[in-house]
Amino acid sequence: MKLQHTVIAVVAVLGAFALAPVVISSGFLLSLLIMVLLTTLMAQAWNILGGFGGQLSFGHAAFFGTGAYAMAILQVHAGLNAWLALVLALAASAILGAVIGGLAFRYGLRGSYFSLVTLAIAELLRILANAVPFTGAGVGIQLPLHASLSSLQFADKTGYLYFLLAFVAIGFALSLWLRHSRFGAYLLATRDSESSAQALGINVQRIKLLATAISAFLMGVAGVFYVQYFQYIDPGIAYGTAFSVQALVAAVIGGTATVFGPLLGALALQILGELTRNLMGGAPGVSLVIYGALLVLMVMFFPRGVAGVLKKR
User: Fold this and answer.
1) Is the pLDDT of residue 109 over 70?
2) Is residue 298 in some structural domain?
């Protein structure tokens, strides 16, 4: 698809989401759309590093939880304005991504080694968040309710949808940039063969490091949104496996290194999740089993994801 056509399609999709609160009065449907957008954002974050960069992360919850906890701690304990806390929380997530990427790539970690390192760091952060007092330890942190724009809390779901939609639009813009920019070409070349990319004069370490920081930034946005929307965060939510799995599975099912893959994967996961909850009554662990089975089936029969299937047609 040409760049112009892709941009038009992205604008149309964003416009449809923007019009949704006007035509939909159901709180349930609005909540579902918000969760679709949240999953899309997480999948976009994972897609930058795992799809375009080929660095498969199993621990993206490290960036999600850092953004969420930084946002909560800066408001509750430091008394900062929500907008300033937002900037600092996203900076914290991006810096964490740069630190993890810098250390991992400096020592040549890639493939399964990089995946396990990200998983281990997320688990380490979960243990630390359970132990230190300023995170609320195992109890977590509850945000006080102040429904106002200055507090980044809204009286209804429409405000949250538009706030999240703005960052999903940034995620789309980043995906388009990676598909049609020199940096994106360098990143794809690095994914396909690091040695060949280095032979062509590409600074592989710098490219991967920047991709990790951008990916961490977007995942941090998801964490910030979560804590503002639900007004609560604890170590299990922040650094547990659930959001790492969601980000990875949605990106792979939708189609890695594509512009619309994260959205398609998010739609599939959220619709499947609602069907599962209705059929299974919210039994614990069922959603993860289904996600795993769906991931295996997609990798076996449709390795290019839903976006790849639709592109063939």
Assistant:
1) yes
2) no
